[in-house]
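Posted in: Protein Modeling Q&A

I'm a second-year student putting together a small comparison for a lab meeting, and my supervisor asked me to include a predicted structure for Bax inhibitor-1/YccA family protein. I've never done this before, so apologies if this is the wrong subforum. The sequence is pasted below exactly as I got it from our records. If anyone can share the structure token output, I'd also love a short note on what stands out.
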Amino acid sequence: MRSSNPVFSRRGFSRDNGYAGFNAQPQAGGPAVGTQGNPYAQGSPYAPQGGNPYAQNPYAQNPYAPQDVQHGAPPQAPPTADRMTLDDVIARSAMTLGTVTVGAVLAWALLPVSSTSYGLAIGAALIAMVFALIQVFKRKASPALILAYAAFEGVFLGVVSEMFNSRWSGAPFQAVLGTMAVAGATLLVYKAGWVRVTARYARIGMAIAIAFILVMAVNLLMVAFGVAEDGGLRSMGPLGAIVGIIAIILGAFFLTLDFKQIEDGVAYGAPRQESWLAAFGLTMTLVWIYIEMLRLVAIFSGDD
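Accepted answer (user: helix_wrangler)
Welcome! Here is the predicted structure, written out as tokens:
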């Protein structure tokens, strides 16, 4: 089962024979050793019973493994120093989110609200999307691409936030607090075990997310061609508020997938470089939630 987050969709984590490995094939013979008390001892919750969920994956062989591992020799656990840790994820996430924040502050300070700044914001968003797509389809994490994405995304968010603040004073600050509240509550629910990220959970959530995105795309086309007025489903009225709440719930869903993927990456000994992808995925999800929260704050604030 691959992650529903596109950043992680080309990666997979599995635990084999008592040591942590990344996309490693299971070693033949014998049960896993040293697994007592380990919550991951029975394998990933995404895995079909009794099998490696990545066995049929074209990326199932570990691209980071030595050559003899690729040809069937007993795999060796990677050195501890090269494994991803939670501290690595936190540090990389701080760097990417910090870059977004710096880009947003500079854009807010240097680009006054005008048609020119709106054009620059759209251009920055398109560039950020290109960088994000390149990273998604790369086999390995590229810190330069991820930080470039964060910088241009920050410029876009800075202009958009200033635009909302000029009409609904304080809306960006409230949106930041709302985003932090959603992220904190989601983490609490996840760590408390109230949500179990299983294959069925991911499938149902992704089906809803894909349907939502398709409906929003159709709505955008209808608005562009004048079929729907006042934004259609994305209006600034009650219907728009309902759609915004659904979008934020979907953002929380993606956060649970991110948390699970990070937890598995740390537990299964993913390469340290993967912490950049974890930070990238978290940044994209938090940007999603912030934008939706910004719209929601504006809707509930009403027209001033």
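A couple of things worth pointing out for your meeting: Residues 238-267 form the longest helix (30 residues). Residues 3 and 257 are 7 Å apart (CA to CA).
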